[in-house]
Amino acid sequence: MKVLMFGWEFPPHISGGLGTACYGLVKGLAHYNQDIIFVVPKLWGDEEPLADFVNASDVSIDYRERKFKKIWKNLTYLEVSSFLVPYLGPEEYKKFTDYAIHDRTDVDESIFTTKYEFSGKYGKNLMEEVSRYALTAAQIARDRDDFEIIHAHDWLSFPAGIAAKEISGKPLVAHVHATEFDRSGQSVNRPVYDIEKAGMEAADHVLAVSQLTKNIIINKYGIPAEKVSVLHNAVLDASIIKSKYNKKVPEKIVTFLGRITFQKGPEYFVEAAKKVLDRDPNVRFVMAGSGDLLNRMIDRVAELRMASKFHFTGFLKGDDVDHMYAISDVYVMPSVSEPFGISPLEAVRHNTPVIISKQSGVAEVLVNAIKIDFWDIDAMADSIFALLHYDGISRMFKEMGSQELKKLKWEHVAAKLVTVYEKTLSTRP
Amino acid sequence: MRTICFYFQVHQPYRLKPYRFFDIGEDHYYWDDFLNRSVIRKVAQKCYLPMNALLLELIQKHHGAFKVTFSFSGTFMDQLEAYAPDVLESFQRLVATGQVELLNETYGHSLAALKSKEEFAGMVKQHQDKIKQLFNGYQPKVFRNTELIYSDKIGAMVADLGYKGILTEGAKHVLGWKSPNYVYQNSINPDLKVLLKNFRLSDDIAFRFSNKTWEDYPLTTDKFINWINAIPQSEQVLNLFMDYETFGEHQWAETGIFDFMRALPEAVFKHTNFGFSTPSEVIDKVPAVSPIHVPIPISWADEERDLTAWLGNDLQDEAFDRLYELEAMVKKTKDPDLMRDWNYLQTSDHFYYMCTKFFSDGDIHSYFSPYDTPYDAFINYMNVLSDFVLRVKGKVKGLEKA
């Protein structure tokens, strides 16, 4: 089968989990000899040649095509001055928009040049790029008719998916990796929500990364349940990592690793840490990462007088991430809303027992983990204490966890995806 | 006898290097040698060397009539020995003229006076020894606490250590209608005389000298002489206390600060009935008028003249408490490396960097801070402190076994 796939980023140039998931999926599909045309706004040239990559920045648009005008008309609502950056918390977002409002250049002329250099980032011209990406998608769909199905990843490429469907008449699969409700809680950005909803409605089938996300799609976007399938993420490599990096402190280490934003629930980790430290001072807590709630967390840790046992590392990259997993005795992911959440699986690869919130998609696939409600700091503290002190349970998790990982392969995900493609094609009128 | 008393504070902290969580338990060296050395060298060129030369010139020119007073923090003297022996020599030359008085303070420029009498006394003793060693057996008789922090209790503690006087801020909320231009006494122990900074005239030089939005800009010697002459005849002492870095560093040479100072002594002799004295001369010659009551500690910092630049927010209080709970254990180790780090970690500047009073005095704070935010300062300090705790505990455990 030949698939025309629209993404926003692809490894090695990624800034979020979306690129990693696309990579895993494409790799899994290659296993089943599926041909993929993978379109990204900007190619860097050092991507692994797993698919027929198309660089949207290289596509010229032919404005004599009348159909494009219609697409453009439907897209113009994106041009309202909305400065949207995904994965930003409310405070950072505000800072960003304040800046962008004073720094905005008019977009019209650049949109109607025949070529457009995408940044492929989540920058201030994001909405402009999303619109332009859709136009490029229309051109690609007209130029190449050698595909049978269209697959678009997350809202950034939904307009592209819709446009490609309109030009080609081929069915569209909309893949939801995260919703606006996960990113922004209750303060949803309307234009993004509208794009997400339009994408899911225009799609012939919708994929959700977890049952949790499927429920949001049904309840908040009004998509009928039978149109939505769950397609869990997997791990690229299920092998256990034996790190040579040694811990240098005598105490056990409990780690939070991720963006320090509302979505990730850092404050619950801080409160649970206090409860554990009151009982057992021989533990160190580490909050690794950066985000708009960082300073508030530091204040709270100081206020609770536990800063000599609670550490902040700032944003970690490269080897430091692996080192952090390696020296952790317990990994906690207390996300308030996590469509999937790949990091606990990384922790398992380092033989670190994990505690995850029930409000995460990964809780649906990982059996050998302690699952708690993100808000239940007593349960979180209990679990941390248990994993630190009762060797039996952590030993069991270590053994079972690594067994479990082997079942979470992208090949299995791809197999399921192929059946979704086939079903979508066969049920078309 | 009407007199001006010039006192200059000379202090540099040992700034911490960026110390990450991963360094805890492994890297036991905390200090940013490169940064500390560059700061000392930069300030030496802009301030210490030219200002020392100017003071020497003035002292020689006025044949014993012009005098100044210094207080050097221990962390400053240690850094002079390491990075700027030329500056140390020029200070030694100044002291050798006999027209320069030196004060004692806490070695680590610490806030120990607020926390531990024992640690405070220990740091004072250490400072006495260092001054003696570097300045030909010199023995100060007057005391200056970190950032001029003073309260009745601190005063009594200082009197117990044998000092006859102490310097502090002439804080408005303490003085009320009273004038700073008299000698006062500690309210617990009247043997300890208290000299108060005239903050208006001191800060005219130290802070406002080059401020173009100030209505009295530019400050000329004539103008300053007029203000001195406006002081009522009954008021005897004008205490001009300031950071030494005022000259050439906070106020650059281009502002004319050196020319102002060069002209000032002669103008004072010619146009006023003031002379120049050091604190111990003032204390010996001018009788005290009354006790001064300072139940709550004051300092010379910020608009509030209180302790909030160093203590009071959660970051500062947490760091401060975690540090001082180690005191007994550190002393048990008697380990020279640990003692040195313990000393340098107490320097008030570390807590100053954690101050979150952004809006009123934030610009002054950020000028002096090597960190982007108080949060960065806190994290870095706590990482270092965590490693320090591990070392101290390890050492104590080792001693107990032995």
UniProtKB/TrEMBL annotation, chain A:
Instruction: Identify the residues that the record assigns to the Glycosyltransferase subfamily 4-like N-terminal domain, covering every copy.
Output: 134-235
Can the keyword Amino-acid biosynthesis be found in this entry's annotation? no
UniProt keyword Manganese, yes or no: no
**Which keywords describe this protein according to UniProt?**
Transferase
Cited SUPFAM superfamilies = UDP-Glycosyltransferase/glycogen phosphorylase (SSF53756)
**Which parts form a coiled-coil structure per UniProt?**
none
Q: Which residues form the Glycosyl transferase family domain?
A: 241-399
Q: Pfam families recorded for this chain?
A: Glyco_transf_4, Glycos_transf_1
Q: Which domain of life is it from?
A: Bacteria
- Transmembrane intervals: none
Provide the GO MF annotations for this entry: hexosyltransferase activity
Q: What is this protein called?
A: Glycosyltransferase involved in cell wall bisynthesis
Source organism lineage? Answer: Bacteria, Pseudomonadati, Bacteroidota, Cytophagia, Cytophagales
TrEMBL record, chain B:
Entry's Gene Ontology molecular function annotations = catalytic activity
**Family annotation (InterPro entries):** GH57_Enzymes (IPR052046), Glyco_hydro/deAcase_b/a-brl (IPR011330), Glyco_hydro_57_N (IPR004300)
Pfam families noted in UniProt:
Glyco_hydro_57
Give all residue intervals belonging to the Glycoside hydrolase family 57 N-terminal domain: 6-293
Q: Keywords in UniProt for this one? A: Carbohydrate metabolism
**Gene Ontology terms describing biological process:** carbohydrate metabolic process
Q: Which family does it belong to?
A: Belongs to the glycosyl hydrolase 57 family.
- What's the protein name? Alpha-amylase
| Taxonomic source organism | Algoriphagus ornithinivorans
